[in-house]
């Protein structure tokens, strides 16, 4: 995939892609997360500023954010992870594991996301998940599906991102996190808004 | 006009001829040990060869005779076929077929490469594998990833007919082989992780015209059961036996996929196959027994009607698909000759049934680690007759959504997956490649979108506590339900076995070894490391008076995904042991056919 985010002169392209992305995900992500949309688009525009700013500086209702407004993980001294990271582990293992392997470690079939996330910014992560990608290099037919309309993925895309970010930063080891913060009401509300009320 | 009538008559005569010979050609091929015309070697699915040139005394001298790169890097399941002087080799997606000339050092006689939309690739669960071709009546049959079934002229590779069996946009794909029976071609379908309502379909072997389609779940006419005549454990199934066991319309996304192996008894005229998991993996979202998922079906291939059914895992809570092979053997039980069907289910039980009527004779664990059920209720007077006795601690239904059920054995990939077993009539034993892996399983809510994964559970896998081997290769007595011997393997054994009259049994390992063991004792007699991990099945043939052995290597499939990076270690703090080794440290991708022979 062409890395439009890595080139500062490609600012217009970035915005366009971010806009497309929001359109693709609007129904689910935006619908669920509501007020978070604006910071997300802004964060995408800033993603190539060269800052390495994964540290959580803010938290809203149990969701941790970086200085530029991207979602991020929070892991306490006792190894307790925030709810989003824990939920990300669950959803990753359900929706992504069958190609990308356990714990983001990769497989004979798809790349290790613990490596990909070292260089892939948040907005590019969103667009790749939503739009999919194709890679026919080295005689391999690698195809990632478009998941933009998959609620089981897109309703939890921030969760999956922060989980993988923690893995790729080396802040979180393999296996299920042993302890986690309680499930915030805001998360429950967002899940119901995105997935529809429980049947 | 007269000419037209004549030509119509000659065309239909040809068609009739073709129909009559289709069954015979497979019968002839399976009775000739020099050939290997369908994936299992024979309709019985015993994967037994009468060839005995390679035997216990000389197998140690076995050596590669020639090899062939398939040009594809994904997981290579199934095996080549040999018909006359030609070997037919298939590949995973893009599903290339090669015809190789055995008289000319494997020169390529023809190559067929279908054009398929690559968007089918990510819709396939767990790699783009294909379990191979079938030959009948001058045609080679291929069921592509995108569900297109093609009949190729065996001499030229030209497409004789093709038909589309499903829609990948709805998550319908294919990984399985097909089975030619009489004048029909039996074809299954995959998509259990995408909420597909799966089925078995019979096409006219001469034209590709659809004859019948039997769904795994739904109304009686769609699942092709007769409420009075179709039986389950000796009793009529009754009206709407499937619909009653689902809530509302959930059967419409109910899975029950037919991606395994099909066997056939020409005397009884019955075809046997199993159905896969009910969708989703979250049992809380689909109350009921979810019939007829996880079921052994016996069907009349002419009409499609089911003679008997047996559901092994009602209301599945662990993804224990019931699709594994259904070998048919005749053995004595309690001194009486019985026509048996033996089945090593993913759920860890080895079942022996009377294949004439579906009576359950034996059901025992073929891996001692199996813990989700204590036993199968064998009391004919019990209301739970034939059902597993569940252990609450390991029930993901009882523990519920958002609860992590720990230490369930076997893992979702089963005590054995699709990798087929072999049976030797000389020893009376089955040779079974197994997985020795347990799991944590946490179901949660998911929503259904056509063509999107519909899973709803998180799982992590690891070897049974205190053990480091992730697989065993075992010998099993199906009349008693007992393990006779067991060879531990570092990784799950994901390769189909071959038993031979030379009293040697062959299988491949995920590191890439082809192994030969003594059929009586399991003692290793030979091993050779092929270029990549083996998830294909071992086959044998004879050419110009010499016995050969062939196997595809090319790591991938569920094994390549689950084991590539090594399993998760629940006791990581205590120091990782060998069992958690990463497969990627032992082998890498690459599709290669390796052919073995004794030195001249």
Give descriptors for this structure.
heterodimer, A: two-stranded antiparallel sheet, 9 helices, 5 strands, 47% helix, 7% strand, disordered N terminus, B: 600 residues, 4 helices
Task: Describe the protein's architecture and organization.
The complex is a heterodimer of chains A (199) and B (600). Chain A is mainly α and 199 residues long. The longest helix of chain A has 23 residues, at 11-33. Chain A is globular and about 45 Å long. Chain A is built from nine helices and five strands; from the N terminus they run H-H-E-E-E-H-H-H-H-E-E-H-H-H. Chain A has helices spanning 11-33, 37-46, 83-95, 97-100, 113-119, 122-131, 151-154, 157-168, 185-195; strands spanning 58-60, 63-65, 71-72, 133-135, 142-144. In chain A, 47% of the residues lie in helices and 7% in strands. In chain A, helix 1 packs across helix 9 (185-195), helix 3 packs across helix 8 and helix 5 (113-119) packs across helix 8 (157-168). A three-stranded antiparallel β-sheet of chain A has the order 1-2-3. Chain A has a two-stranded antiparallel ribbon with strand order 4-5. Chain B is mainly beta and 600 residues long. Chain B has a six-stranded mixed β-sheet, with no helix packed on it. The radius of gyration of chain B is 23 Å and the shape is globular. Residues 4-22 and 571-578 of chain B have low confidence and may be disordered. The interface between A and B is large, with 41 and 51 residues.
Element layout with pairings:
The complex is a heterodimer of chains A (199) and B (600).
Chain A: H1 11-33, H2 37-46, E1 58-60, E2 63-65, E3 71-72, H3 83-95, H4 97-100, H5 113-119, H6 122-131, E4 133-135, E5 142-144, H7 151-154, H8 157-168, H9 185-195
Antiparallel strand pairs in A: 1-2, 2-3, 4-5
Helix pairs in contact in A: 1-2, 1-6, 1-9, 3-8, 5-8
Chain B: H1 2-31, E1 48-49, E2 63-69, E3 81-83, E4 86-90, E5 97-101, E6 107-112, E7 134-136, E8 139-143, E9 148-153, E10 159-164, E11 179-181, E12 184-187, E13 199-204, E14 210-215, H2 220-223, E15 231-232, E16 235-236, E17 263-265, E18 270-274, E19 295-299, E20 306-311, E21 328-333, E22 336-344, E23 349-354, E24 359-365, E25 373-376, E26 388-390, H3 396-399, E27 405-408, E28 422-424, E29 429-435, E30 438-443, E31 457-462, E32 471-477, E33 482-489, E34 498-500, E35 504-508, E36 513-518, E37 524-529, E38 539-543, E39 546-553, H4 557-562, E40 592-597
Parallel strand pairs in B: 1-34, 15-20
Antiparallel strand pairs in B: 2-40, 3-4, 4-5, 5-6, 7-8, 8-9, 9-10, 11-12, 12-13, 13-14, 15-16, 17-18, 18-19, 19-20, 21-22, 22-23, 23-24, 25-26, 27-30, 28-29, 29-32, 30-31, 32-33, 34-35, 35-36, 36-37, 38-39, 39-40
């Amino acid at each position: 995939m062409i890395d439009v985010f890595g080139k500062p002169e490609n600012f217009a392209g970035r915005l366009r892609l971010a806009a497309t992305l929001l359109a693709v995900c609007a129904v689910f992500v935006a619908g669920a997360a509501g007020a978070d949309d604006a910071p997300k688009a802004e964060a995408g525009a800033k993603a190539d500023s060269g800052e390495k700013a994964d540290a959580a500086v803010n938290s809203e209702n149990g969701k941790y954010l970086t200085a530029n407004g991207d979602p991020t993980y929070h892991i306490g001294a006792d190894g307790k992870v925030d709810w989003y990271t824990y939920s990300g582990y669950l959803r990753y293992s359900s929706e992504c594991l069958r190609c990308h392997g356990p714990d983001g470690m990769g497989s004979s079939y798809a790349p290790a996301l613990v490596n990909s996330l070292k260089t892939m910014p948040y907005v590019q992560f969103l667009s790749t998940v939503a739009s999919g990608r194709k890679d026919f290099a080295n005689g391999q037919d690698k195809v990632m599906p478009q998941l933009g309309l998959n609620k089981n993925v897109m309703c939890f895309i921030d969760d999956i991102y922060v989980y993988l970010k923690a893995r790729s930063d080396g802040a979180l080891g393999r296996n299920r996190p042993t302890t986690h913060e309680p499930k915030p009401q805001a998360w429950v509300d967002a899940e119901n808004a995105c997935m529809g009320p429980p049947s | 006009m007269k000419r037209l009538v004549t030509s119509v008559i000659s065309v239909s005569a040809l068609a009739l001829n073709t129909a009559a010979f289709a069954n015979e050609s497979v019968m002839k091929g399976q009775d000739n040990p020099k050939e290997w015309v369908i994936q299992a070697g024979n309709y019985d699915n015993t994967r037994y060869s009468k060839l005995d040139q390679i035997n216990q005394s000389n197998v140690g001298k076995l050596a590669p005779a020639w090899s062939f790169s398939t040009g594809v890097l994904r997981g290579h399941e199934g095996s080549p076929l040999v018909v006359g002087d030609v070997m037919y080799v298939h590949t995973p997606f893009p599903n290339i077929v090669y015809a190789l000339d055995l008289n000319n050092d494997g020169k390529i006689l023809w190559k067929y490469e279908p054009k398929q939309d690559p968007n089918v690739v990510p819709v396939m669960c767990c790699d783009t594998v294909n379990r191979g071709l079938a030959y009948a009546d001058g045609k080679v049959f291929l069921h592509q990833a995108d569900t297109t079934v093609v009949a190729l002229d065996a001499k030229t590779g030209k497409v004789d007919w093709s038909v589309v069996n499903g829609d990948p946009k709805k998550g319908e794909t294919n990984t399985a082989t097909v089975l030619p029976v009489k004048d029909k071609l039996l074809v299954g379908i995959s998509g259990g992780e995408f909420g597909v309502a799966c089925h078995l379909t019979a096409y006219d072997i001469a034209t590709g015209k659809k004859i019948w389609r039997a769904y795994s779940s739904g109304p009686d006419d769609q699942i092709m059961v007769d409420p009075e005549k179709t039986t389950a454990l000796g009793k009529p199934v009754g009206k709407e036996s499937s619909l009653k066991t689902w809530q509302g319309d959930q059967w419409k996304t109910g899975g029950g996929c037919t991606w395994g192996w099909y066997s056939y008894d020409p005397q009884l005229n019955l075809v046997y196959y199993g159905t896969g998991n009910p969708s989703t993996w979250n049992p809380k979202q689909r109350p009921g027994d979810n019939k007829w998922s996880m079921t052994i079906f016996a069907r009349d291939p002419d009409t499609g009607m089911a003679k008997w059914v047996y559901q092994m895992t009602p209301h599945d809570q662990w993804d224990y698909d019931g699709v594994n092979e259904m070998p048919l053997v005749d053995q004595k039980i309690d001194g009486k000759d019985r026509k048996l069907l033996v089945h090593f289910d993913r759920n860890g039980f080895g079942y022996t049934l009377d294949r004439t009527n579906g009576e359950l004779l034996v059901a025992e664990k073929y891996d001692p680690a199996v813990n989700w059920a204590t036993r199968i209720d064998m009391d004919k007077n019990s209301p739970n007759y034939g059902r597993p006795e569940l252990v609450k601690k390991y029930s993901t239904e009882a523990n519920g959504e958002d609860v992590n059920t720990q230490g369930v054995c076997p893992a979702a990939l089963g005590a054995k997956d699709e990798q087929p077993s072999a049976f030797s009539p000389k020893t009376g034993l089955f040779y079974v490649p197994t997985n020795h892996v347990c799991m944590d399983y946490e179901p949660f809510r998911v929503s259904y979108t056509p063509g999107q994964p519909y899973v709803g559970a998180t799982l992590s896998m690891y070897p049974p506590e205190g053990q480091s081997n992730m697989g065993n290769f075992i010998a099993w007595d199906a009349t008693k339900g007992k393990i006779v011997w067991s060879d531990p393997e570092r990784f799950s054994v994901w390769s189909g076995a071959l038993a031979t009259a030379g009293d040697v049994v062959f299988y491949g390992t995920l590191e890439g070894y082809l192994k030969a063991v003594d059929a009586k004792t399991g003692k290793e007699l030979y091993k050779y490391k092929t270029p990549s991990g083996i998830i294909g099945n071992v086959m044998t043939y004879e050419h110009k008076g010499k016995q050969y052995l062939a196997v595809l290597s090319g790591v991938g499939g569920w094994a390549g995904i689950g084991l590539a990076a090594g399993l998760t270690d629940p006791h990581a703090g205590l120091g990782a042991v060998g069992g958690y080794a990463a497969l990627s440290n032992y082998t890498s991708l690459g599709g290669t056919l390796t052919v073995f022979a004794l030195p001249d």
